[in-house]
């Protein structure tokens, strides 16, 4: 579905990512985990065509992706960030905007928006102004917007980290359910191993811009592959 080969990203003489390889198969959710500054968001941005790597190549559905990524490819992906980026309009329009841009009919837009607002438990907010939403509600609306696009690949960069613990827990459960039902191919960035354990099939551990380990969440915890990874994962084994 999506592959990155030997990616490096150098900015202002600083190596942010080094010799990074990544692949994503249809239907799986792959986690990227690592401490602050380890390059998780940088890798996500490169995979989501928001940044151009200094060296290395990306392949999307078997085709090499050109440096200037064509719109039809960009439109096959959706991204949700830590802070929900909502437009200053109503909730319904926020979720439907991408579909409108893609030229879908009014009926299809209504159907999809209603469906995804319902999946994320925010149907009752449909007519509300987006700027009045709580953090948890806004993130549910952001997720509904991303899923409404029915993307080939969904990118989630720390979608829960601005939420309090109970809100986060509730949303994680709902998202797990949606993943199970839709098998949406996803890259999930988190610094919380609980998210990774509950939502991903496989995870990569990034330390200082390099992939240091890869495996199922339970295999990573059981046999961390090297000392640095073991030290990082020690924070989560309690
Ligand atoms: N556009 C950029 N220009 C220069 N440096 C950057 C840029 N983007 C990221 N960096 C640097 O790259 C490193 C990795 O940043 P990145 O945001 O990918 O880390 P992260 O793992 O997502 O961290 P966090 O957990 O804090 O979100 C940091 O040192 C950051 O300052
Ligand atoms: Mg980040």
Explain the overall architecture.
With 238 residues, the protein is an alpha/beta fold. It has a domain at 1-68 and 187-238: 3-Layer(aba) Sandwich (Rossmann fold). It contains nine helices and ten strands. Strands 6-7-8-3-9-10 form a six-stranded mixed β-sheet, sandwiched between helices. It has a four-stranded antiparallel β-sheet with strand order 2-1-4-5, with helices on one face. Strand 4 (55-60) and strand 5 form a beta hairpin. Helix 4 (106-119) crosses helix 5 (135-148). The chain is globular, with a radius of gyration of 18 Å. Magnesium ion is lined by residues 40-41.
> Count of DSSP helices?
9
Global geometry: globular
The CATH homologous superfamily of one domain: P-loop containing nucleotide triphosphate hydrolases
Please list the strands of the largest sheet in the order they lie side by side. 6-7-8-3-9-10
Q: The CATH topology of one domain, please?
A: Rossmann fold
CATH class of one domain: Alpha Beta
The average pLDDT value, as a whole number, equals 95
What is the number of beta strands?
A: 10
Spatial gap, N to C terminus: 35 Å
* SSE run: EEEHEEHEHHHEHEHEEHH
Bound molecules: adenosine-5'-triphosphate, magnesium ion
| Radius of gyration of CA atoms, rounded to a whole number | 18 Å
What share of the residues lie within helices? 25-40%
Let me know the largest β-sheet: 6 strands, mixed
CATH second-level architecture of one domain = 3-Layer(aba) Sandwich
> Which stretches are low in confidence, meaning pLDDT under 50 for 5 or more residues running?
none
**SS-based structural class?**
alpha/beta
The fraction of residues in strands falls at 15-25%
């Amino acid at each position: 579905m999506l592959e990155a080969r030997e990616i490096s990203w150098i900015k202002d003489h600083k190596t942010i990512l080094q010799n990074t390889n990544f692949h994503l198969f249809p239907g799986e959710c792959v986690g990227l985990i690592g401490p602050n500054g380890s390059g998780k968001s940088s890798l996500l941005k490169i995979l989501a065509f928001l940044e151009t790597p200094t060296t290395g190549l990306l392949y999307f559905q078997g085709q090499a992706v050109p440096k200037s990524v064509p719109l039809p490819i960009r439109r096959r992906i959706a991204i949700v960030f830590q802070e929900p980026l909502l437009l200053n309009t109503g909730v319904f329009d926020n979720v439907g905007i991408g579909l409108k841009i893609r030229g879908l009919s009014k009926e299809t837009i209504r159907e999809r928006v209603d469906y995804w607002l319902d999946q994320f438990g925010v149907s009752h907010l449909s007519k509300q102004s987006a700027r009045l939403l709580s953090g948890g509600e806004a993130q549910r609306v952001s997720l509904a917007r991303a899923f409404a696009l029915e993307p080939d690949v969904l990118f989630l960069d720390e979608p829960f980290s601005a939420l309090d613990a109970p809100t986060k827990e509730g949303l994680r459960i709902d998202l797990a359910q949606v993943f199970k039902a839709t098998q949406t191919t996803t890259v999930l960035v988190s610094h919380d191993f609980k998210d990774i354990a509950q939502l991903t099939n496989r995870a990569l551990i990034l330390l200082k811009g390099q992939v240091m380990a890869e495996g199922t969440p339970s295999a990573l915890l059981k046999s961390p592959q090297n000392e640095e990874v073991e030290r990082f994962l020690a924070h989560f084994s309690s």
